[in-house]
Amino acid sequence: MPESNQFDRKRQRLFLFLCCLFLTNALIAEIVGSKIFSVETLLGLSPAQIPIGGQKLDFNMTAGVINWPIVFVTSDIINEYFGRRGVRRISYLTAGFIVYMFGVIYIATVLPPADFWMNVNASDEAGNAFNINEAFARIFRQGMGIMVGSITAFLLGQLLDITVFTWLRRLTGGKYIWLRATGSTMFSQLVDSFLVIGIAFYVFGDWSLQQVFSVSTVNYVYKGSVAILLTPLLYIAHYIIDGYLGKENAARMIREAERSI
Length: 261
What we know:
mainly alpha; 5% strand; two-stranded antiparallel ribbon
């Protein structure tokens, strides 16, 4: 097989893998994002109740934070090797699949439940009466507001991330990947963290502004911290990809991605 054809196949496989990784984690984050968990309880601690601006801040986060850091890192890697066009392409595709996913979920919530399913699940583990169909609908329909907030915040956050990443790459002459990756994530997620929670739980939900501020702040602090902690992963990914593609081919892809700015 000619070397050029072999490289083209490797490049296509790499883009497909990164897109699948990006899309899968974004969809999972959207599905589980309606659950809010207590970091203090997870760690066996008492609520922090930190006074900020006349409000008490506890460490509560959406379960979606488990997957979003992987999305951030993958987005930066795609941008590094395939340019902003590659990131835009997968971002728009992901937004479309999120809409499709929640459309199917909504249809599932309005389907009439089977009697045996209701009877088998008529009580919880403690023996209390339990309506599984209502619980199913309430959990997933809560996701409708999250969907609107997430689509808006996701696309805006991605476009900001692409813009800042590209600007920092141009400013540094392609050096300091840690700076453009972390800097773009910190900036874009400042908008994303507050926008998605505000739309999902304040506009479409019944949260107070204090709750929105508390959860959004903690989410942003977490995402920013993880973005910094995952910086070595970017260099590891670079090493693996360069080895897979070949250093000369990888360097050529990066140069092409820079010229596509």
